[in-house]
Amino acid sequence: MAGIGRLEAAIDNAHGRAPVLLTCEHASNFMPPQFSGLGLSQAQLADHIAWDIGAHALARRLATILDAALVAAPASRLLVDPNRDIGAPDLIPEQAEGAPVPGNAGLSAADRAARIAAFHAPFHEAIEAQLAASPHVEALVAVHSLTPVLFGRERPWHAGILYAEDARLAEVMIARLAREANLNIGRNQPYAPSQGVYYTMDRHAGGRATVMIEVRNDLIRDEIGQTRWARLLADAIKAALAVLASAESQANLAKIGGRN
């Protein structure tokens, strides 16, 4: 299946004025017909193993509230995960939560390269192009969702805020969300960047502030939940961007003072 057609990323609000670019790596469970669902059932393809349920709808609402651009991957992560390095063992998973993915077993080097060229490369090229055309962007925010139960274990977090060495956005967002009663916000939960899940942010940061959001998918399966969480997260992101802008302003003033 080396002749797969290239699938371009989905872009919303390309000319957004906010100093932040949103990404949604696991936005869709779409698979071109020639893949025959990778041998999985319709129920499996509708489940979170194939995509981040509710994440794209949430990200689109965030883009509108913030007036930010959004770049979303248009195909299932089971074909190739755009949020993984091309050398990662789970780039094209042969198992998903313990269930075999028949269509991913024993792929040739040519098949793997074709999938990367069709689904992985276009997403990252779209981000690069968006950033090149938007010099005002000073932050990247990835939008994901998490399943409430994994391998039979309940996950207690309503949302998680993930970050690596750069905590400029995360610290403010966590503090802001902590104001909401009864919310359990995980710090580098349910995953941490050290687990390979921060690939997009690491690849495109270029000195920009970065953060990754995970919202429990049962909370954003409908418009009511998506709207609520878009408002909560937009408020937290705006607060973080304000602190970021203030810090940069003070740094610039210090530079000017140092030259006088």
Ordered list of secondary-structure elements with their pairings:
Layout: E1 10-12, E2 20-24, H1 42-46, H2 55-66, E3 69-72, E4 95-96, E5 99-100, H3 109-132, E6 139-146, E7 149-150, E8 153-154, E9 159-162, H4 168-177, E10 185-187, H5 199-204, E11 209-216, H6 223-259
Parallel strand pairs: 2-3, 2-6, 6-11, 9-10
Antiparallel strand pairs: 1-3, 4-5, 7-8, 9-11
Helix pairs in contact: 2-6, 4-6
Structure in words:
It is a single chain. With 260 residues, this protein is an alpha/beta fold. The chain has a single domain (10-259), classed as Aminopeptidase (3-Layer(aba) Sandwich). The protein has helices spanning 42-46, 55-66, 109-132, 168-177, 199-204, 223-259, and strands spanning 10-12, 20-24, 69-72, 95-96, 99-100, 139-146, 149-150, 153-154, 159-162, 185-187, 209-216. The strands form 3 sheets. It has a 7-stranded mixed β-sheet with strand order 1-3-2-6-11-9-10, sandwiched between helices. The protein has a two-stranded antiparallel sheet with strand order 4-5. Strands 7-8 form a two-stranded antiparallel sheet. The chain is globular and about 50 Å long. The model has no long low-confidence stretch (mean pLDDT 94).
